[in-house]
């Protein structure tokens, strides 16, 4: 098994990142004003504990329920996320990452502020999707990371963001190869169309052939039944929906489903 930065940062290759989907935050349309921040905290703490008790390798915090997403989220979103992660830190026993959806600069700043080890996002290119045109500025994000003295925060780049297409019609593989040369990615992530949908396996195979030493991450749709298929190509995976009660996106994390998933992943790792 080849060695990547995952061994140093996460403690294992073929790593499983369990998602902690924060409930809608202040300012979001779905925010529960009556339950307030306490309800968000209690739900997040329960998910953290279920993931860790189930044996997950790492956590990843995301404002998944900030529907509908914004291209430039207001500062209260990052502030609430920083508050939540800071309050949860005494209970976190594994490495963790974080991202503010659709805001790479906020993601980098958040990670630098709360001690997160990695982030994910659309860091380069221009895409058309459900948010309209989505532009990026990779040079700004890498410089921000450096200026915040957070060069050790790993940046995992989406090859193509969910439900989007490159406005220039560039081939995703060719785009990723160019990005590897110019943009200093720490890894590439391939999502499906939406949360819970399988990642593009064909593209993952192409990326692995073109970049045998690059960290590749399946970003959506990873489940118990696909552990062998996914991890035979990928170095890591973000897992969310399949670890929730009854495999439903809106539900809390199910510790037993986490344990079952990790038992199968551990069997796979031991076979390598």
TrEMBL record:
Q: What organism is listed for this UniProt entry?
A: Lacrimispora sp. BS-2
Q: Which Pfam families match?
A: BtpA
Entry similarity comment: Belongs to the BtpA family.
Q: What is this protein called?
A: BtpA/SgcQ family protein
């Amino acid at each position: 098994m080849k060695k990547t930065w995952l061994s140093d940062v996460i403690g294992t290759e073929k790593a499983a990142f369990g998602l902690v989907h924060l409930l809608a935050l202040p300012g979001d349309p779905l925010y529960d004003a009556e339950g307030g921040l306490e309800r968000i905290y209690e739900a997040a703490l329960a998910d953290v504990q279920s993931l860790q008790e189930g044996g997950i390798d790492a956590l990843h915090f995301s404002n998944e329920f900030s529907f509908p997403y914004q291209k430039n989220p207001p500062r209260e979103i990052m502030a609430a996320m920083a508050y939540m992660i800071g309050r949860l830190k005494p209970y976190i026993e594994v490495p963790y990452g974080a991202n503010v959806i659709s805001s790479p600069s906020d993601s980098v700043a958040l990670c630098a502020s709360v001690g997160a080890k990695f982030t994910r996002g659309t860091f380069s290119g221009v895409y058309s999707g459900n948010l309209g045109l989505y532009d990026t500025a990779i040079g700004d994000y890498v410089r921000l990371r450096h200026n915040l003295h957070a060069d050790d925060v790993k940046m995992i780049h989406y090859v193509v963001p969910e439900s989007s297409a490159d406005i220039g019609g560039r081939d995703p593989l060719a785009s990723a190869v160019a990005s590897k040369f110019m943009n200093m990615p720490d890894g590439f992530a391939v999502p499906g169309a939406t949360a819970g949908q399988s990642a593009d396996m064909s593209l993952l195979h192409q990326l692995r052939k073109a970049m045998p030493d690059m960290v590749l991450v399946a970003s959506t749709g990873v489940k118990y039944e696909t552990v062998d298929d996914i991890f035979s190509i990928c170095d890591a995976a973000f897992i969310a929906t399949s670890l929730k009660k009854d495999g439903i996106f809106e539900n809390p994390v199910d510790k037993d489903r986490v344990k079952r998933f990790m038992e199968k992943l551990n069997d796979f790792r031991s076979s390598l």
